[in-house]
Design a protein that fits this description.
Immunoglobulin-like; 81 residues; two-stranded antiparallel sheet; 6 strands; mainly beta
Length: 81
């Protein structure tokens, strides 16, 4: 879980093992299936916003896709406000 409340602790969601050299694609979806975060080949650091709007407390589905071996990881992350 992460808590983007500006206190400097757990303000962003990160995937620590994900090196930018993997050139992975990371997508995060809300409960309606809407894409709210997308990054390719970069360090993951989602602040809980989408198009400048704070997203509500809840569980979000993430998918990490690795191009080099067509491997995917899926899971959930919880945003707390």
């Amino acid at each position: 879980a992460f808590t983007p409340d500006g206190n400097g602790k757990n303000d962003t969601w990160k995937i620590p093992f994900l090196d930018p050299a993997y050139n992975a694609t990371v997508n995060v979806f809300n409960r309606f299936g809407q894409l709210v975060y997308h990054v390719v080949g970069s360090t993951v650091s989602w602040d809980g916003n989408f198009k400048g709007m704070q997203q509500p407390t809840g569980s979000y589905i993430y998918q990490v896709s690795f191009k080099m071996n067509n491997f995917k990881i899926k899971g959930t992350v919880t945003l707390l406000r």
